[in-house]
Structure formats: structure tokens, C-alpha cells
Amino acid sequence: MSDFWIFFKVGLNHVLDIHGYDHLLFLIALTVPYVAKEWKKILILVSFFTLGHTLSLLLSVFNVVSVKAIFVELLIPITIFIAAFFNIIMAGKSSKNGNMTFVASVTVFFGIIHGLGFSNYFNSILPGKPIDKLAPLCEFALGIECAQILVVISVLILAFIAQTLFRFNKRDFTLIMSSFVIGVIVPILIENPIWHK
Hints:
By secondary structure, this protein is mainly α.
């Protein structure tokens, strides 16, 4: 049982680590267009991320896929930018199933890319045969899912406070938070080593 908590905590810390805030930024961008009563949609999207993340780690563990870190480090902020920019374009417009499909696709893609970015570290902390890494991988995925739910709940509480106490409407809150995400992510994109070769 102690092994379960070790890898569960690694998953929790992977999301909640303030130094690896790209994950937090993506979760903010993912959550801000929704309100608490739409929790089922948010849960589905968060689970899509975990699915993509776990799938790419699984493929990496079995040496099916390997991507250079420099490309992953570029794709992660690009995907965050796309999610936040999409929020700005769609803010105030009625949501349709097509929007959900697009966001779900971006979410799965982000999960895959983020998982590839984490795969080297994951493989280094788990020496041994690929089959021996399956249980820790599931425990790690549960930690990620729980941490993401905590972040989503925090964003929804912030949205409730902003919209109730400070009288922001949903559209304005989405625009402000998505602009904040873009403001943080653009310098990361500009400073990416791929541009300075």
C-alpha cells in the first residue's frame, strides 16, 4: 500500500508543483469558460487529459514512442496558448458540441505531449521491465486526476467569487483569465531554445 501512496503523491506533485506551472495554466484555460453546474463537462475534459498523459507514458515505457525534449518543450506552451486563445474567441458565444469536440481534442493532445515531456523522468525513477511499471503508472495517473480536480475546484471557486462578489460576468471572467494565461505563456514561447539555435 505504501508504494501506491509514493506514486500517487508523485502524480499529485507533478500537477501542483508551482515550478511546473504549465500544467496549472492549461487547467485554468480549460476551466474558465465553465461554471460549477457544468462540472460533468469539466470532469470529462480533465479525464481526457489524464488519458492522453497516461497513454503517452505507456507508449514511452514500452519504447513505442520517443520525442526529443526540445520539441515537447515547444508544443506544451503552444497548446496552452491555443486553449486560452480559443477561450477569447468564443467568450460570450453559446457553446456547441463542436466547441467541446475541439477542446477535448486539444486536451487529449496536451495530455499526450505533457506525458512525453515527463516520460524520461518517469522512466528514470522506475528502473526495470516495462510490465513492472504498469501499476505505478496507474497510481501516478490517479494522483494526476485528483490534483487536477483540486485545481479545477479552486478555479471554479475563484470564478464564483469573481462573478458573485465582484459582479464579473462569465464572459469578462473568461477573457481576463485567458488573457492572463496568454500573458504568462507568450514569454515562455519566445524564450524557447528552439528559436535560438
